[in-house]
Design a protein that fits this description.
The protein is 37% helix and 13% strand. It is of the alpha/beta class. The protein has two domains: 47 residues, no CATH class; 278 residues, Glycosyl transferase family 29 (sialyltransferase cstii, chain A, Alpha-Beta Complex), CATH 3.90.1480.20. Strand 8, helix 10 and strand 9 form a beta-alpha-beta unit. The longest helix is centred in the middle third of the chain and has 16 residues. The C terminus is likely disordered.
Length: 340
């Protein structure tokens, strides 16, 4: 009986990896068969393939270039420019001085600036994973749509946050578009300590004012937390890139957008909480999110195809998709530090 994980490049693991790669499109196999192949691959200790990773980064650099265009900046969106919205193609927004002032001078991050990054999806697959400590050990952590990271969840998802996105629909539905009391929303953002807040202000015209209110609110409360807006041209480029990889949707999920950016900004990318199926790889039913079971509106995202693409990237050694419980699952005290 083999003890411990197999090396990623041993003959057994090469076969298991090829079994995943042989599924060219998701509809080729039943979900149960895909799960079986993915479970087999879990005996292999993931290892980054530098050549494959650098090749994929080059593709992303040519199509999208997150280090220059992830956010709107004074450099890539000069004053006087007419900004084109992501989906309202006919709509433009003149970048007048009061808007221009909200942009950073330049992008705050550079290519491969961070060694190890964790991108945290909100999928139910992360519940009971005990991955919190492993996530918090990453050099940079991305989170989507202000998910809960209270003590109740931290053992699985950790606390550390460097970037958190906010979908304006959340502000509209839960915080009355910030037209009334703003402190409850401000307190939610304070949960993420010194992280940057990122919004798709220019997805469509409806998103703009409510996104700007977040910036105004943070300034009014004297917060040092940076507020950034996704560059709509960057998001369009990412949408086109993944469409060529077979992920065609009205809108990519926030998780895919962040994972795509992370692959340019980080040397090594680890995904947690990314899963788009009602069962985990062992066939056990799981909640849609780790904190609730509310499903997205049908037909908007293409989550199974997104995850399928990431399983391929994992098999090629480009990023690491975590679907198993983490090794830190036993709570012990090490050097006086108590784990979650």
């Amino acid at each position: 009986m083999h003890e411990g994980p197999y090396e990623f490049n041993c003959s057994t693991c090469k076969k298991f990896r090829q079994d995943i790669m042989d599924v060219k499109v998701l509809s080729m196999v039943k979900t149960t068969e895909l799960f079986k192949r993915w479970r087999s691959l879990q005996v292999c200790k993931w290892e980054q393939n530098k050549m494959e990773t650098n090749s994929f980064k080059s593709l992303l650099s040519r199509c999208c270039n997150a280090p220059l265009f992830l956010f709107t900046t004074k450099k890539n969106m000069p004053s006087g420019t007419k900004l084109r919205y992501e989906v309202d193609a006919s709509g433009t927004l003149p970048i007048r001085s009061e808007i221009f002032r909200m942009f950073p001078d330049d992008m705050p991050y550079s290519r491969s600036q961070f060694r190890k990054c964790a991108v945290i999806g909100n999928g139910g697959i992360i519940k009971n994973s005990k991955c919190g400590k492993e996530i918090d050990s990453a050099d940079f952590v991305f989170r989507c749509n202000i998910p809960p990271i209270s003590e109740k969840y931290a053992v699985d998802v950790g606390y550390k946050t460097n970037i958190v996105t906010v979908n304006p629909s959340i502000i509209t539905e839960r915080f009355q578009k910030l037209e009334k009391w703003r402190k409850p929303f401000f307190q939610v953002l304070q949960t993420y300590k010194n992280s940057s807040v990122v919004l798709p202000a220019f997805y469509n015209t409806q998103n703009t004012d409510v996104s700007f209110r977040v910036k105004y609110m943070m300034d009014d409360f004297g917060s040092q937390k940076p507020v950034y807006f996704f560059n709509p041209q960057y998001l369009l480029s990412v949408q086109r890139f993944w469409a060529l990889q077979g992920v065609r949707a009205k809108r990519l999920t926030s998780g895919v957008m962040l994972a795509t950016a992370a692959m340019e900004l980080c040397e090594e990318v680890h995904l947690y909480g990314f899963w788009a199926f009602s069962m985990n790889p062992s066939g056990i039913f799981i909640m849609h999110h780790y904190y609730d079971n509310i499903k997205p509106r049908p037909g908007f995202h293409a989550m199974p195809n997104e995850i399928f693409s990431f399983l391929h990237l994992h098999s090629r050694g480009i990023l690491h998709v975590h679907t198993n419980p983490c090794r830190y699952s036993a709570c012990v005290e090490i050097h006086g530090e108590t784990c979650y």
